[in-house]
Design a protein that fits this description.
The chain has 277 residues and is of the alpha+beta class. The protein contains seven helices and eight strands. Strands 1-2-3-4-5-6-7-8 form an eight-stranded antiparallel β-barrel. Strand 4 and strand 5 form a beta hairpin. Helix 1 crosses helix 3, helix 4 packs antiparallel against helix 5 and helix 5 crosses helix 6. The longest helix is centred in the first third of the chain and has 17 residues. The protein is elongated and about 75 Å long.
Length: 277
């Protein structure tokens, strides 16, 4: 028999016919999938609507079970529902895991940012703003690689997550490369904006962005050139509370704005650090 069915059968035999006790039994036995199944059923049971204390316990156990299964989003949603019932809920930080406290803090922020009439637990569509810093190595491909050495690049910007699946980014960029003979340094500065899909799986996040920007590059004390920048980004990071750390791979194209335009292919590989506001 499936563990959830077995737990429910045992509770029924004991004369306490509700999914809450069965789910709690699964939770105490560390069978978190069984606990999620039964406690989700208990959360929908109309008998508990008149028992706020019992509802708080159900959602607390649900949140802990989801976190044990690495289902952070669902844990945050459970905490949102808990806070709707008891907005002053404060577990003891000395006996509560940091992951649980972090999920509870996000639920509190999400609930505070949710307009009236919107169900926050089912609408993680509230926009989330993050600041990001990306130091990277920058390579040139093709003929430019014969003229310039590999260089360094740094991006500083902001990222807006719209719901679960879309990202917007605005970035300032600075990069530099030495010439192959080592006598000059070519500097590049500019800005770009990008958008694309974003995906979340537990604490992992993947973003695929395409952008457009404008830059100015050249050797100091000499006339520079203007160019369009078309970056493509693949970014993967891991969430640690409000902080994220990960990797970025970004090919990009420079198209000079002159009578005889020419293009350059860039390849960035960097570290990505972000913090949610």
């Amino acid at each position: 028999m499936h563990p959830a069915g077995l737990a429910l059968f045992l509770v029924l035999q004991s004369g306490a016919p509700d999914a809450y006790l069965a789910g709690r039994t699964c939770f105490e036995q560390l069978d978190y999938r069984c606990a999620v199944e039964l406690l989700t059923a208990a959360a929908r049971d109309p008998r508990f609507r008149a028992e706020p204390g019992r509802q708080v316990e159900i959602y607390r156990l649900l949140a802990e079970s989801h976190l044990a299964l690495r289902q952070r989003r669902q844990a945050v949603e459970a905490f949102v529902e808990l806070l709707r019932i008891k907005d002053d809920y404060r577990p003891d930080p000395a006996t509560t895991s940091p992951k649980l406290l972090d999920a509870l803090d996000e639920a509190r922020r999400r609930l505070a940012a949710t307009p009236p009439g919107v169900t926050a637990g089912r609408q993680p569509a509230a926009s989330r703003l993050a600041l990001r810093l990306v130091p990277a190595a920058q390579l040139l491909v093709g003929r430019d690689a014969e003229l310039l050495q590999p260089g360094a690049c740094i991006d500083l910007g902001a990222e807006l997550r719209l719901g679960r699946h879309w990202l917007l980014a605005a970035t300032l960029r600075y990069a530099f490369h030495q010439t192959r003979d080592g006598q000059h340094t070519v500097h590049l500065a500019g800005a770009w904006a990008a958008a694309g899909p974003g995906f979340e799986l537990g604490n992992w996040r993947l973003g695929l962005l395409a952008g457009l920007g404008a830059v100015r590059f050249g050797v100091i004390d000499r006339e520079g050139k203007s160019a369009l920048l078309l970056p493509l980004l693949v970014q993967l990071d891991y969430r640690l509370g409000p902080w994220h750390a990960g990797l970025v791979l970004g090919p990009g194209w420079l198209l000079t704005l002159e009578s005889n335009p020419r293009s350059s292919l860039l390849l960035d590989l960097g570290l990505r650090f972000t913090v949610e506001m």
